[in-house]
Amino acid sequence: MKILNAFFLLLLSVSILAAQKKQLPDDVVASIRERIENGHSPGIVVGIIDKDGPQYYAFGAKTAGGEPVDEHSIYEIGSISKTFTATLLAQNILNGKMKADDPAQQYLPKSVTMPMRNGRQITLGELSDHTSGLPRLPANLNPADPSNPYADYTVEQMYAFLSGYELPRDIGSQYEYSNLAQGLLGHILALQAGKSYEELLIENIAGPLGMDETKITFDEQMKKNLAMGYSQGMQVPNWDFPTLAGAGAIRSSLHDMLRYIGANMGLIKSDFYPAMQLAHTMRHDKAGGIRVGLGWHISKGSDGDVIWHNGGTGGYRTFAGFVRETGEGVVVLTNSTKGADDIGFHLLNPEANLIKVKKSALAVIRKAIDAEGPDAGLNAWATLKNEHAGDYELNEDEMNTQGYIYLNEGNTKAALAVFRINAEEYPNSSNVFDSYGEALMKDGQKDEAVVNYKKSLELNPGNDNAVKMLEKMGVTNAVDIPEVAEEVLESYVGTYNLAPGFDIEITREGTQLFGQATGQGRFELFPKSETEFYLKVVAAQVVFNAKDGQVESLTLFQGGQELPAKKMEK
């Protein structure tokens, strides 16, 4: 009888636990299942933590068709690592070892000369809040293996870049997201402590919080539990950050990341909660309407501020955030370059919409090409367009990458088929015609290559590669840059709303226009005509739209999309 009673109590306790587990909203579950079914990611794990503790929700697998993911599956968290770096800095500030206003130069070898401007030095705080003036990446980052781009970047290379770099603007004046700055900050913290960045991470944050699955170097258990990264449906290598670890080197699990978010919210007690609070404190609001603390970003939500960061490496996309007012934190981890930030934001802010999930047209095209050849791929796409319009998505960047995969494999005809589809579907993209031109040139079709490079240059006069390729083929094609009157440029200045909570701010300095999207760095706009402008940092164009002499909106052309943005009243 005692055994039966014990068994009954066990069943009862399990039943109570099952009843207490909260359910994810139906729209989130449906969205996740659609993403996995449509090949967005092999696996997606979501965690929610509040006063009742952590809840884990796992969907899909660690590898395509492999073992299921769970809360202990290991992911690269990418740039969420920056918030750990910020916490380490904040700990040093509260312990009196450092000050946010300390010059970074103070902690580097004398052989290194940090860039200055107008007698001003870059501070530790500015490295952390993305206002240092340093670029996103150092210009001398030239990886031997593009699939692991940070692996061979050395401390000596970083020092050489810093010593020779000239800042383009005043320090502290603008937000520009910088992996270099954050990696340098992690390096400085390690130098100051006389330890590796990983040792600092484990001793000061992961160890005290019981985050045994949070490290940079894989241990045997982490290797066993690793959710392999995927890009465009193909498994890709993990990334290594020997020099810029503080920018994105950490690997972790849903279990551990919920403990980390719980500690940031004060739900899990720790001695360094004050340091975490300091990292959340706003330092500026220069990120296109988003406020920024040490590492963390802060956005307005319907129920309170969403304090968040996301991350991405070659095969992973991740999100972590929380809302103090609701006492809820969320973590979303995927082993794919198809992100799921929208799920995280939607769970923390019901007004944030989930994306519409579609099937991958590229997967169908690639399957047809690999099985039956290039013409089969062209026919497969024609069938999708004619019979299944709206059910499939064709992504310009993914198609372009696939074209180069075929090109690098020596399958030029397959590459031509993919680039041809891309050019037909994205006729306003300079980049697709540039890629198509390269494949045509390699296939010996010089005349057609010239036509496509000229088209690329017509769409984007800033495409220096097209100029070089045309010159290589004996074609000179000088680009005329029109002059636009300052009063016309001034009429474009203002804020343009692209989507709820996402704006593009247009500013002017003399005859140069600049743009800055919410949460992103500032970019230059170059005139193609009086109303059309192009970007050099990415393949994109902006057209300003006026009615009765008044500028009402702009249209952003990027990645095959036409995105209208209404000009907001001052």
Structure in words:
The structure is a single chain. With 570 residues, the chain is an alpha+beta fold. It has an eight-stranded antiparallel beta sheet, sandwiched between helices. Helix 14 (374-387) runs parallel beside helix 16. The chain is globular. The relative contact order is 0.10.
What is shown here, in short?
This protein is of the alpha+beta class and 570 residues long. The protein is 38% helix and 21% strand. An 8-stranded antiparallel β-sheet has the order 2-1-14-13-12-11-10-9, with helices on both faces. Strands 17-18-19-20-21-22-23-24 form an 8-stranded antiparallel β-barrel. Strands 3-8 form a two-stranded antiparallel ribbon.
Which properties best describe this structure?
38% helix, 570 residues, globular, disordered N terminus, 21% strand, 8-stranded antiparallel beta sheet, 24 strands, 20 helices, alpha+beta
Spatial strand order of the main sheet = 2-1-14-13-12-11-10-9
The separation of the N and C termini measures 78 Å
Nearest-integer average pLDDT: 91
* Strand-pairing-aware structural class: alpha+beta
Tell the overall outline: globular
Largest sheet: 8 strands, antiparallel
Radius of gyration: 25 Å
Strand content: 15-25%
Give unreliable regions as ranges. 1-19
> How would you describe the oligomerization state of the chains in this entry?
single chain
Q: Please work out how many helical segments DSSP would assign.
A: 20
Helix content: 25-40%
What's the β-strand tally?
24
